[in-house]
User: What shape does this take?
Amino acid sequence: MRDVYVIGVGMTNYYKKSPLSAADLGRQAVFNAVRDAGIGPKQVQSIYVGEMPGLSGSICFGQRVATTMGMGGVPMMNVESACSSGALAVNLAVKDVANGVTDISMAVGVQNISATRASGTAFSPDANDPEGVQGITMPGIYAMRAKRYMEEFGATPEDIALVAVKNRRHAMNNPRSQFHDPITVEQVVNARSISDPLTLLMSCPNTDAGAAVIVATKEKAMQLGSKPVRFLAREVTSGIFSNGFRDMTSMEITVRGAKEAYEIAGVGPEDIDMVECHDAFAINEHLYTEAMGFCGHGEGVEFIRSGGNDYGGKVVFSPRGGLLSCGHPTGCSGAAQIVEATWQLRNEAGAMQVPDCKVAMTHVTGGGIYGLDNAVCTIHILSR
Amino acid sequence: MRDVYVIGVGMTNYYKKSPLSAADLGRQAVFNAVRDAGIGPKQVQSIYVGEMPGLSGSICFGQRVATTMGMGGVPMMNVESACSSGALAVNLAVKDVANGVTDISMAVGVQNISATRASGTAFSPDANDPEGVQGITMPGIYAMRAKRYMEEFGATPEDIALVAVKNRRHAMNNPRSQFHDPITVEQVVNARSISDPLTLLMSCPNTDAGAAVIVATKEKAMQLGSKPVRFLAREVTSGIFSNGFRDMTSMEITVRGAKEAYEIAGVGPEDIDMVECHDAFAINEHLYTEAMGFCGHGEGVEFIRSGGNDYGGKVVFSPRGGLLSCGHPTGCSGAAQIVEATWQLRNEAGAMQVPDCKVAMTHVTGGGIYGLDNAVCTIHILSR
Amino acid sequence: MTEKTAKADEQEQVIFHPDFFKIPEDGSKPYLVGLKCRNCGQLWFPKLPICPACWSETLDESPMERVGKLYTYTIMNVPQPGVKAPLAIGYVDFPNGIRVGAQIDVLPDQMKNLRIGMDLQVGAGVIREDKNGKKTISYVFRPLAASKGGK
Amino acid sequence: MTEKTAKADEQEQVIFHPDFFKIPEDGSKPYLVGLKCRNCGQLWFPKLPICPACWSETLDESPMERVGKLYTYTIMNVPQPGVKAPLAIGYVDFPNGIRVGAQIDVLPDQMKNLRIGMDLQVGAGVIREDKNGKKTISYVFRPLAASKGGK
Ligand SMILES: [Zn+2]
Ligand SMILES: [Zn+2]
Assistant: This one.
């Protein structure tokens, strides 16, 4: 397998309500990424596009984005696994270059949630999902994890709020994030309850955005003079069905996925300078700092109280502001994380910059299906 | 790159209205394919699932199918490019084995159209597609191709009907096809007009079905004692945007895709014994026999009049009955074609058997987007 | 049958899902139906076409005990369409080793009494109602002491 | 403006798409707006954010001639929701080398007179109407001799 480098990244803003159509969000991200790479659009040899047609009703979304940019005539596929869709697109693009299928490939992630029929309501359940039909929503599932976590490990609503406050503070430095006003623990705890104990400010908002990542061989990256950002690992796995007494405070698919990713990358949690994690709800950083091995099971409370997940701590979680304050454009988020990690590894992250950032990890799960921790988990580890 | 073999295939019936949910159609196809391969379900190392969430509203469809069969914990992705979705899944599974990523991978294609909101109406246009908003439908586009083809090459409605009659005759031998009654040229020509000159009997019906294909290395195939069916080529490409005076009787994306596939496979049209082509409308065999090089441009009329596309002719098109008489479960069709081609190459196709079938080609396009011949084209060439 | 389902009978209703959940006609209490694999002995809920563990197609119905322990729960204030807020939902661990997620049928002013670890029993209830008043009946959980409460 | 759009003014309506299609306020005839890339000279229709050929962001509006030749057409009898059957649609080739697909506004009994190669001109018309009567106005093609016909 060949080493794979990021040669260009592009993003739109994270919009509450995008002024652009979904296709134009994609086009803007692609335009920015191609310009960032300094290549011609026709040098891209395969294209993968993550979007959730189950929300948008789209058909051949990627072809709609790319062909009117003169990028047709190459292998192109749309990929979906809920919130991991954009990360899957990156996975496939990197795999093409790694296996010698292409020298330059592109991944795109897009979601225009505000233009979607389902907007403003919780995601509808699959008619045949026994928990979906009962009305269980994604916030409901994470609320139940939070409830159990609080019971077992003594976390308080204020502990959960700490993550929302931190990620908002980070977002204030991100020109593209959806929110730039500071919030306090008190405000977070007292915000409207979405699903007890999670409040509105502990939950990621619906968001529209597009992101694009162009990857290439080392030779191409050097020819182009790209600042070196290399993939150490790309991991994608799926949930394991169980009817039994799963520990809902231990995120099985992320524990397994992170372990595999570390092994492939040849690094451990001690080597990771920053993480973009799937912080769809504020409890997630407790769950994921543990699942990724930054602290032991149940130790997330103390880890986060002591700032272990912040600038100056062991690892910076969500320097861009996370899903909590950038917002969560579902099909886009997995790709957006890699764009933001690339800027950090290039030392181009401005006020968000994680000092001396050498290794970054991006992580996104997705899919509420009964009997699974999550349907999917996607992890990338990148190094400068 | 390693050689890749089909080791197991599975299909459901082609249903007008499936008694099974979409997920259960997928499970039945997977069950049959795993049993056919003679492997254990946990030996499958990666899974790709083609379905159109833009029609069904599905999220993480493949994970819903596979994890309750104990096949979770492996890389799994849902892929879509309209009617090519199932073929893209096969493309990715084969690519994993070819590149040494896995030794055994599985592709699934499923669509339950009858359970879909959009059922019974033409596909809704993307709100931003300038032709979609004008009301142009897929039947409309193919009708316009037919109209121009008739004008340029002297084809008559009876010529177009010949394809529907032939494929119905083939379907009578297929226990899984949707129709088993013979039809005549007169019946086809006089059926209700869908979009002039195309009648109902010249158009593929909505259909529900699932198909699965398991592929592996030569070593695994030999260990399992599989009858050898090998991929000579897997081609996927996308449309090229143009506002100019395209020749709508020459199927640009298929001309290009077939040329590339032949080159990779090291074969030509003269070597192909059978084709499963995208005969969504009866005019398509005129267009595609030409685009694939079985006869020259404009010569499809005579080629088909003389039975060049039938048993005893140069190449058998759609021995299973094609989309016209099996029906077109969109996300499934690309995978279903490969299942049926495998049975032919194994000499297991019963009354449908193409005599001494050595090399088979499967072909599916998809996606109505203005400025493109088609959004996508997917071709596989397999040999015994 | 409970008060809730009796009232629902007046309008169109569906049971989700007759294979998952039985309401005996003799008036005895509703229960969940587990599936036990005849080959490997593994238990599953709800019904699946094959055993996920061993792919046996022979699974025998195995009625589940009616009382289990609440593993975790939440009160959802932003529900799906067709479901009214506030809505209590939870996962209940049954003695046969199976965990089931479903609605907890308690009045809003009783929701504060829910506790992780408490006993809940299976009952029948209306779990959703569409715009046309069509109701879906399924299993719900109720506290032991208040099994007849409506919403 | 044509009779058709004047009538539509009585109810809510949208123009698809003001960048694609101009209905001059001085009463002169409607026309399509091509885009000419200032860098490579390529013509495009309808408006795109960048030139697909050379990625220039500077594209100048280039009004198109109003008459073109019908490349092919069909009468659709099974339309999309919001569109009435029978509906004639076709691709028209304009002198600037651009092909445009749109509805052909002729009465059902005139549809048999459509011919490949005939001249059609651009007009304004109602191309769809949703359940609430909201109309979409856009460009349509009409035979030269009968440019005032309604449907
Ligand atoms: Zn078993
Ligand atoms: Zn240009």
Q: What stands out?
A: The interface with chain B takes residues 16-17, 20, 43-46, 52, 71-83, 87, 89-91, 93, 97-99, 101-103, 116, 127-128, 136, 138 of chain D (CB under 8 Å). The first strand of chain D starts at residue 13 and ends at 15. The mean pLDDT of chain D is 88. The CA atoms of residues 20 and 46 of chain D lie 5 Å apart.
